[in-house]
C-alpha cells in the first residue's frame, strides 16, 4: 500500500509546466520534499490534498482515493497547512479554532494544550486582522497539531515565520504524531532537525524529481553519515582504513565517515548515524548545474 502516489502526473498553469511527468510513491512515515522556489512542491501537495486538479496523469491517496474527486472524503483523515490558507480576518483566532475543532471533531482540550505550548492563548482573543504573519502561522499549525484524527498530515513550509523555540515545539509534537499517523509530508526551505526522522527524501527542480530515496536506499547507497566517539582514534581510523573507507573527517574528538556496508565491529563503539540532507541537497543541485 502507498499512502500518497503520483503516476505520470503533470500540472500546467497556462504555459507554465509546474509538474512534469512526476511518478512517486510515499509510504508510511515522514517524507521531506525539498527544492528551490518554483520547483513545484506546493503544486504537488495541493494535488494530493484535492485543492488542484491534475492536468494529466493520476494522483492517489491511500491507493483508492482520487483527491480532486474525493476531497470531502480525504479531508476526514487528512490535515493540511498551506501558506495561502485563508482565514476571515474579522474573527478571533480562538473562534476560528473553535469552529475548526468542531468541524473536525478535535477535542477542545487538545487545542488549548497546544495553544498554550505555542503561546497562542496570549493573543487568540484578538481578531485575526491584527496578527503578525508568525502569529497567523502558529494559529494555522494548531489546527493540524491538535488533531488526533488524522492519518495524513501535509505541511507546506511549516517553519517559515516561526521563531526557533516554536520550531522546536512543532517538531516535538510532529515526532510524537509520527507514532500514530500513516504519513507526514513536509516541504521546507530550512533544515530544522526533523530531517533526522525521515523515511524518504525527495528533491524537486523545475517540476521534475531530481532525487527520491527512501531510508533503506539511503543506507544502502552510502548516503548515511556515521559519527563515532572513541578514546583510541588512531586504532579506529586504522580499522576504517583497512575496510577501504576513505572519506573520513575528524572534528572535536568525533570521527565522521560514510560507508555502504554494514560494519559488525562498529557496534562496540559509541556511534550515531544521520542523513546529511544538506549535503545531498547541495550535491544534487550542483550536479544539475554541471550538466
Ligand atoms: P514551490 O512550492 O516549489 O515554490 P510551486 O508549486 O508554488 O513551487 O510553483 C511551481 C510553478 O508553478 C511556478 O513556476 C509557479 O509560478 C507556478 N504556479 C503555481 N501556482 C500557480 C497559479 N495558481 N497560477 C499560475 N502559476 C502558478
Ligand atoms: Mg511552495
Shape: globular
What's the number of structural domains? 2
CATH third-tier fold name of the largest domain: Rossmann fold
Radius of gyration over C-alpha positions, nearest whole angstrom:
21 Å
Beta-strand fraction estimate = 25-35%
**What compounds are bound to the protein?**
adenosine-5'-diphosphate, magnesium ion
- Average pLDDT across residues? 93
Please list the strands of the largest sheet in the order they lie side by side. 5-6-7-3-8-9
Corresponding CATH architecture of the largest domain: 3-Layer(aba) Sandwich
Poorly predicted runs: none
Supply the helix-strand structural class. alpha/beta
Percent helix, as a range, is 25-40%
Folded structure, characterized:
The protein is an alpha/beta fold. The chain folds into 2 domains: about 210 residues, P-loop containing nucleotide triphosphate hydrolases (Rossmann fold), CATH 3.40.50; about 50 residues. Helices cover about 30% and strands about 30% of the residues. β8 and β9 form a beta hairpin. α3 packs parallel to α5. The longest helix has 14 residues. The radius of gyration is 21 Å and the shape is globular. It starts with a strand and ends with a helix. Magnesium ion binds next to α1.
